[in-house]
Amino acid sequence: MEFETLNQLLAWAAETYQKPDALMFKKGGSWHRVSSAEWLLRSRRLALGFHGIGIRRGDRVALLSENRHEWFLVDAALQILGAANVPLYATLPGAQVSYIVRDSGARLVVVSDRGQQEKIAGVRSSLTKVERIISLDAPLGDAVAISSLEEKGRELEQSDPELAAKLGTEVTADDLASIIYTSGTTGEPKGVMLTQANFVSNVKASLEVLPVGRDDVALSALPYCHVFERMVAHYLFPAAGASVAIAQSLEHVVENIGEIRPTVMTMVPRFYEKLYARVTESVEQSSAVKKRIFHWAVATGTAHGEFRLRRESAPPGLALKYKMATALVFGKLHRRLGGRLRFFVSGSAPLPTEIAKFFWAAGITILEGYGLTETSPVISVNHPDRIRFGTVGQVIPGVEVEIAEDGEIFVRGPNVMKGYWGQEEASRETVDARGFLHTGDIGELSSDGFLRITDRKKDIIITSGGKNIAPQPIEGLLKTNAFIAEVVVVGNRRRFPSALVVPDFERLTAWCRENALPSSDRHEMASHPKVRELFNEQVASQCNQLPQHEKIKKVYVLAQEFSIEGGELTPTMKVKRSVVESRYKHLIDELYGESERAIT
User: Per-residue pLDDT tens for 470-499?
Assistant: First the structure.
């Protein structure tokens, strides 16, 4: 692959593949196509438009937008200029937007719609270094329409046809491509500086592991502000020649899957957890005969899957049974996922092993990987021909992993960040003198190179009896239960572990109605003795196979969901453990202050 920078990547991909449907997006009820040639042309004109209003190599431009096709054009334009894209989640409140824009020193803010323009207007007085607001939709006030910027670029192109190419050649592999602010689970977000070389090296190494090609169609649904989807959708898929369809939203993913029928797709574990919960819920509500058929199919798929894992042919009898299981049970799930999916990639959070094994039994491949914003992001990923459940795969080419004495994972390679923007001390604490990044994750590396993540270093629970408990695997196990939407395991310096549980309120409401219990008020449901008994039973059942010291002894059912707006979730839907523990400290204290009525 002949490219060293991201603008070279886009130009190379456009010339190599010449795709009529490089990008697809839905608007007005129908899907629209953007060819690779148009993508490149419009990006170059936008780059010239930015250049025409004074944006230069090394400048920072903030982008506050939901996923949409213009995100691709703006990002590509900034890469042509050598300006750093500072992406902002559309869900962020004004105060956090102001902090990031000010901290990054952005000269421009590009916003998507009226709501985001109004958000910026509310903090405009604090953005003293921001010179202009650019709007992707109709501008308000003194904002400038992106279309007028593109037109300015077209005029510059006519007067100097070689200017865009000249600007692109000035960008080097060491130039800053983006400053991505971390989710801030433990304080103010830090700006991760990622260079052109960081992204390009990660694209090339990942493509040695993930078999993606020009015949693939990817449905892209995760936020582009997150490094995982940004690298995959904007850089890796185009470099592989795959077409990228932009989902309308996470709420429309299932609908869009049916329309696009993707062959590859990246998602976070919560998607698979919800899909699994819906399947098991449907089975629970079916007849005894259908339940027996389902469990027979899963057992058959599991047995057949063992041969697939070893890349061996199953015995003829088992192969025939699996074909029947697919026709009777698994086929419906395949059709729901479009009918031609080759594999999913899962990242951003741990994927419960039970869920990965279930989908594998059903003939659906989920490749779990691992990475950080600070590593551009991929460190390791399972290969379709080399899957090991419970691991995040083998380390990608060119990247080194070392396990410290306390179990922390250290990473070194061309994908490791340049540092944190404006925070030299934090940078030195994270990347040591040898160039190894200290991930903060605890893990194990097998003799044949498979990496297993056991927990976050800071999340390890140490009971008052000295037992170490990793909460994430327990939480992943509990979330496979159809009644549980979110869960936080607590118990540091306490006698035993307990859990704060957020119900799946849709499922719980239906259960309350079936059992003639109050079902209109969430607080009334959560506090009802029968509901608490239900969740005690569900949690005890899920924890049945855990070691005694890891079993959840007490459960508190919360009456409201975690949310980004409420501060309990990051924009990537990760639970802010410290926020939850602080907010519900009185409830946790109440759990441990009561007499010991432990779940057994």
Answer: 888 899 889 888 899 999 999 988 889 999
